[in-house]
Amino acid sequence: LFSGNITKANWYYDDDSPLGLTEIARIFRDNLKPGEAKKWIDEALGLWLEQKRIEGLDKIENEIERFSKEEKEDLNYLCYIKASIYIWRKEKKDKDEALRCISLAITLLPKYISALNLKTDILYSLGRFDEGLEYIKKAERLARDEPELWGELMRILEMKAELQRKLRDLNEAIKTCEEVLEIEPDNKDSLN
Asked: pTM value?
């Protein structure tokens, strides 16, 4: 199955497609091969930047206005996948790179709930709970407006309660858990 997915990704995208390389990176990530995933996502982002004639991710903020909606969506996805790979690496510089990438993804598409959630996870892994709580609250507001995202809302509320607990705001953490239980009475995570 794993090699079949790689073959399918290679077949679907041509060799000079950053999205094709990103799909390969995602497959390696999903199959718990972070070293390979890192190699492919770095190549994908490098290729995307080269094709746009941009010298590096740190130069992109000045270029965002000239991007089409499709280019913003593509770069958002590339940055999201890179951050989702780098968060699991051990070194702090990799977590910092994950944070930089996910911040760019959010700049490109501020209402992308998965990116807001991932930024929360990255901030949590760095021990920056106050900032994480800020982003999870943004994700919560967006998810409440979309009935098809109620499953995602449960994960958001659980993370919110965990951040509140880490910040020693136990009364708010209890309220958040009670809200989860109102929506989903059998939620075992909120019962703990």
From this structure: 0.80
Q: Which residues of 162-188 are buried (b: 16+ CB within 10 A; e: fewer)?
A: bbbbeeebeeebeebbeebeeebeebe
How many H helices and E strands in the chain? Answer: 10, 0
Tell me how far apart the alpha carbons of residues 170 and 33 are, in angstroms, rounded to a whole number: 38
Q: Residue holding tokens 């919110």?
A: 160
d(CA 112, CA 101): 14
Which residues 6+ apart lie within 8 Å of 165 measured at CB?
173
How large a percentage of the chain has pLDDT more than 90?
Answer: 42
Q: If 0-12 CB within 10 Å is exposed, 13-18 middle and 19+ buried, where does residue 65 land? A: exposed
Asked if pLDDT for residue 90 goes beyond 80, the answer is no
At a CB cut-off of 8 Å and minimum separation 6, what does 177 contact? Answer: 161, 190, 191
